[in-house]
Specification:
Chain lengths: 521, 176, 437
């Protein structure tokens, strides 16, 4: 039974929303953002900051829009003199004990207190008395708490309690002595605790990892997908001077709501590693010599001539690369397999179907859908004399006899492991997940785009481009100018991906056909 | 609130070397009876904290953690509650915890003089600081709800009405 | 009025008849004095009938809000199949008020009887009496009285032999004025920080433990047995003939600079001038009244002229620039520093703020600091304007009215006694580094 629709007017705009919607959420549908702090769509309503007070005609008092349901015929004013006065009052009060730390505070440039004060607050403070002082605290995990800056919005407390189901934070004391507290010995070690840093509107909860690293206005931001596990949390890659400096979650109601786990969040340093293979290499006798791309591709193609390709694919490769690898496999009559490193599952209990997954790779589902076989021993099916293509993978842990079956080894990857120096015949350098664009398919079959956040090193090329060139050298007629083209070809030849395109996927992604059918059943 | 640590031999205020559980034997039975009064275990929190304070003189971190476990709450949650309510001592206090009301109705009747008299006669140098012999802690409190009997004073659980500075020495002498 | 003075001739001792009478404390003594006849009668009526009688009486909440009790009880839907709760608000922490304490320590059975009738009338089998932690003697008395009542079968699963269940428990507070706010009280019973809740939902819909709940003050519930015994019409005979909206008697707690502080019970509508000079004995020798706060620290301060012109009921006090509130009469004479007392009142609110709402958390403290600075001689004329602005920001914008209450003495003090403030202001302005243009 559908909820009744309620019609009201907000700032002169007609709005129609389901019964039970808050005024604040209703305003969003009309493109109006009512300033607020304690409210967050992923948390239970608190209504304590009092920033979101709006004027409702015929009502005796200002209404907290986050905690007030819409009513038929309401006329709401967000920027009337009364509402503006009230917000100005709140902003002034918040700055009473708040230190003017902007020059040294990490939050500057992305601080909601700064933003609203600049927009609507008083130009000068009226406090002639001293401010309350408390020392900085280490909350454990990646989180430090700068007590003085806290505006007691309680988002962090509500997150840990209602979403993480691990109530390790509290509000302690009363009145203006109040602060966020915890119990000695019980820290923010929950696998999802780092989200409180994003939730904090001011610079009270900060990442120790990011402390004093960059200024918010110095970074570029790119939409991406976390490569840490098969959940596929949407994220933002922040870069400066071609280095990844921070990862933050990006909202997607269908995947991760507003959150990402600490493991994914903090695991970005490898994206900046400098020990990359950034030039094609071809074996000449005992050593690998640098080569031009055309020569290296030709060398690889000639190795594959008349042979079967056995592909050891990484489940961290994007769909585009895996698609082209599967074409390679098909063309040569070979096989492709992959294994997935396992970790410990860590659910976020307050959000349905959200967890750090045991599969520590973003595209295992994609690999399967595109014809790769998941195997504990992915080289077991290789036949003697096959050309082993190690695509962004490791041979460590493989059985030596299996490896020895290979007639030749072509390495396509981002680094040059020790074994490759002796064993690889050709090395083709590729860019990593933040240096190219592509798509991953998460464990639920959601295909999601990730965009290029920084440029790759040296002569490294996108994975799809390298494989496209290799296929062309083997006689494939299809030409691909952009990753887009590869994806379109993938969609055209795989019913699960039918109808998908980069445009259609947008920033939220879409489910493969079998998953979508399951969802609507 | 509570005062600072009292000397180790002060009988009322002991630091626990090792926490011995409060909710065993009769206290556990009392707690179990309490559980029948409310639909949640959480609701027994304030009464449980009173039991701890009655038995141990204050609510230590270890005691707080025991309460949390017994009521199936987190220690951080219990701590948030303990720090909200001013009557739970978070540190050991003097044997006689003296609370003088100084809110406006009593203030206009000379409550500040009563407060100062207590500070003088107990040897406490400051409000909230336990006397060197561990016997007294004096604090100001907000309205005790006996405004017509100014100035009311609480000494531990004992409520004394109509205190004047002149009566203070006798009151102190009468404390065991 | 009981202890320690004898009742004044002009008092009407309904609730306070046995203040000072040690025998009234026990069950046996209380029964001799007519106790529990009302409960027996009520248990033979239907809940709807009881609600009707209480509605007719015009009884209004005596804790400070003055909401009609019968109407409040009628909000409870008796056939919703949910467990209902009655909470008795015995948190009495409003400065100036000390009447519930006397009711509980002299006539605890009166309260228990009122609670039992109230619980039955709203379909509740459980009543929690939330007594502030500092009230050690009332707690002892009420606990002892409850034990007697259970032993005598008045309470329990077969209340007075009717087969109905009435359970009453004491829940002890631990030092928080804000727990006198009804939603904070419910949170405190639930074992939480005493934070007030946003309304809606209202307690009658989703209250303690999420279930329909009614919260009533001690004095309100103590009046109920008398109403049951004597009828609603009887209760209406107390009060001004020309003001049917304020009926019954009220305990006024008198404190501060008067000859005879204590609790006085008079019919609503009693002339305040007579009350102050006749019943309470007037000012202390050699002094004159300066300012009167008739309803606890949260109601506006009155000038002596306003007080002398007031009739002591809900509407009468509003007409004279204040409110009846809890009926806690705080008398301040001309030997006091009024600004210092207002500063002390602000300090009280700053200490008691729960810290949820920005305006209250910061505003109570900021107000206190400015006022203390003014009292110390370090205030400026601008400070007075700032105080008014802060008070305005603290009014009508928060989850509960503690914030508004802090603004009240400041605003009424500045409106009616501005001279006292200005006398303390020595400086015109303070040189400040100008903000960047």
């Amino acid at each position: 039974m559908a909820d009744a629709m309620i019609n009201l007017t907000i700032e002169g705009r007609a709005v129609s929303v389901p019964q039970g919607t808050s005024i604040l959420e209703a305003a969003k549908t009309a493109g109006i953002l009512i300033p607020h702090y304690c409210y967050h769509p992923g948390l239970p309503v608190a209504g304590v900051c009092r920033m979101c007070l709006v004027e409702v005609e015929k009502a005796p008092k200002l209404a907290p829009s986050c905690a007030t349901s819409v009513a038929e015929g309401q006329v709401v004013h967000v920027h009337s003199p009364k509402a503006l006065e009230a917000r100005k009052g709140v902003l002034e009060m918040l700055l009473i004990n708040h230190p003017l730390d902007c020059p040294i505070c990490d939050q500057a440039g992305e601080c909601e207190l700064q933003d609203y004060t600049y927009q609507e607050g008083r130009a000068a403070g009226r406090l002639r008395d001293g401010k309350r002082f408390n020392p900085v605290e280490d909350f454990g995990g990646d989180v430090m708490y700068v007590t003085n800056r806290c505006i007691l919005c309680t988002r962090c407390v509500r997150f840990m309690d209602d979403v993480a189901h691990d109530a390790v934070l509290n509000v302690s004391e009363r009145g203006d002595r109040a602060l966020i507290g915890k119990f000695e010995g019980k820290d923010l070690t929950h696998p999802w605790a780092g989200n409180v840093i994003d939730l904090c509107p001011v610079g009270a909860l900060l990442s120790k990892d990011s402390l004093n690293k960059v200024r918010a206005w110095e970074v570029d931001r790119t939409a991406s997908v976390c490569p840490g596990c098969s959940q596929g949390c949407n994220m933002i890659v922040e870069t400066r001077d071609n280095m990844v400096v921070r990862l933050r979650p990006r909202p997607n109601d269908a995947v991760n709501q507003y959150f990402m786990c600490d493991q994914g969040r903090l695991d970005y340093r490898w994206m900046n590693r400098q020990d990359r293979v950034d030039v094609p290499l071809v074996r000449q006798g005992a050593a690998l010599a640098t080569a031009e791309w055309e020569a290296a591709i030709a060398a690889a193609a000639s190795l594959l001539e008349g042979k079967r390709a056995h592909v050891l694919a990484s489940p961290g490769l994007p769909n585009e690369a895996l698609y082209l690898l599967s074409r390679l496999v098909g063309k040569t009559g070979g096989a492709g397999a992959f294994r997935v490193r396992q970790g410990e599952e860590a659910p976020l209990p307050g959000v349905p179907d959200l967890a750090r997954r045991t599969d520590l790779a973003p595209n295992g589902r994609g690999a399967e859908l595109l014809g790769m076989t998941r195997a504990g021993a992915p080289l077991a099916g290789m036949k003697a004399g096959d050309v082993l293509i190690v695509a962004d993978e490791e041979l460590a842990g493989m059985d030596a006899p299996d490896v020895a079956k290979a007639g030749a080894i072509i390495v396509i990857g981002t680094t040059l492991p020790a074994w490759a120096r002796h064993a690889a015949s050709v090395v083709l350098p590729i860019t990593n997940v933040v240096e190219e664009e592509g798509t991953f398919t998460n464990l639920r079959g959601r295909v999601q785009r990730f965009r290029q956040a920084k440029s790759g090193p040296g002569f490294a090329r996108p994975s799809w481009l390298v494989l496209a060139d290799l296929l062309a050298a083997l006689g494939e007629s299809a030409t691909y100018m952009m990753a887009n083209d590869v994806f379109d070809a993938l969609a055209a030849s795989h019913p699960e991906f039918a109808g998908m395109s980069y445009d259609a996927l947008g920033l939220k992604g879409a489910l493969v056909k079998s998953a979508a059918a399951g969802a609507t059943a | 609130m509570g005062g600072v640590e009292a000397p180790a031999d002060a009988p009322h205020a002991r630091h626990e070397g090792q926490h011995t559980p409060v909710f065993v034997g009769p206290r556990r039975a009392q707690l179990d009876e309490l559980f029948t009064r409310y639909p949640t275990k959480r609701a027994a929190l304030l009464p449980a904290l009173w039991m701890v304070q009655h038995d141990r003189g204050w609510v230590s971190e270890a005691a707080l953690a025991e309460v949390a476990e017994v009521l199936e709450l987190t220690p951080a949650y219990v701590k948030g509650v303990v720090t909200f309510y001013t009557m739970y001592h978070q540190h050991p206090v003097g044997k006689h915890f003296i609370q003088v009301c100084t809110t406006s109705p009593c203030a206009v009747c000379g409550a500040e003089d009563v407060r100062d008299a207590f500070l003088r006669h107990t040897g406490c140098e400051e409000l909230g600081v336990t006397s060197p012999d561990g016997k007294y802690t004096v604090i100001e409190v907000e309205c005790l709800g006996a405004c017509g009997f100014a100035t009311p004073v609480m000494i531990n659980e004992q409520f004394v009405e109509s205190v004047t500075p002149e009566k203070v020495p006798d009151i102190l002498a009468g404390l065991t | 009025m009981g202890y320690p003075h004898k009742p004044h001739d002009r008092e009407t001792t309904v609730l306070s008849k046995y203040f000072g009478d040690a025998e009234a404390i026990t069950l046996a003594g209380w029964k001799q004095r007519g106790g529990y006849a009302a409960l027996e009668k009520a248990l033979g009526m239907s809940p709807a009938e009881i609600v009707a009688v209480v509605k007719e009486s015009g009884l209004r909440g005596r804790g400070g809000a003055g909401f009609p009790t019968g109407v409040k009880w009628s909000f409870m839907k008796l056939d919703d199949g949910k467990p209902h709760y009655l909470c008795c608000n015995a948190d009495e922490s409003e400065p100036g008020t000390f009447k519930d304490r006397e009711i509980m320590r002299w006539t605890p059975h009166a309260l228990i009887e009122g609670c039992a009738i109230g619980a039955y009338a709203i379909g509740a089998e459980t009543c929690y009496i939330y007594i502030r932690g500092e009230f050690t003697e009332p707690i002892m008395r009420v606990e002892a009285a409850l034990a007697e009542a259970y032993a005598a079968g008045i309470l329990g699963t077969n209340a007075m032999g009717t087969g109905k269940t009435i359970n009453i428990y004491v829940h002890r507070g631990a030092g928080a004025y804000i727990c006198g706010e009804e939603t904070a009280l419910m949170n405190s019973i639930e074992g939480r920080r005493g934070n007030p809740r946003i309304k809606p939902p209202f307690p009658a819909v989703a209250g303690v433990f999420g279930q329909p709940t009614t919260i009533n003050n001690v004095e309100t519930l103590a009046a109920v047995p008398h109403i049951i015994n004597n009828g609603g019409a009887w209760y209406k005979t107390f009060g001004r003939a020309d003001n049917p909206r304020s009926t019954g008697t009220k305990l006024f707690s008198v404190c501060g600079n008067v000859q005879r502080p204590g609790n006085y019970e008079v019919p609503l509508g009693f002339p305040f001038k007579d009350f102050l000079y006749d019943l309470c004995g007037g000012p202390l020798p050699g002094r004159r009244f300066k300012a009167i706060i008739p309803g606890g620290i949260s109601v506006p301060i009155q000038t002596v002229d306003e007080a002398e012109a007031s009739l002591m009921d809900y509407e009468g006090f509003v007409e004279q620039g204040t409110m009846l509130g809890s009926g806690g009469v705080i008398v301040i004479d001309d030997a006091q520093n009024l600004v210092k007392q207002i500063a002390r009142a602000a300090r009280f609110f700053a200490h008691e703020s729960c810290a949820q709402c920005t305006q209250c958390r910061e505003g109570t403290s900021w107000t206190t600091r400015i006022l203390e600075r003014i009292v110390a001689g370090d205030g400026t004329a601008e400070d007075l304007d700032t105080l008014v602005d802060i008070a305005d920001n603290m009014t009508g914008k928060t989850i509960c009215v503690l914030s508004d209450s802090c603004a009240v003495p400041v605003m009424s003090g500045l409106q009616k006694f501005r001279g006292d403030f200005e006398a303390l202001i020595k400086k015109k302005t303070v040189h400040m580094v100008p903000a960047v243009a």
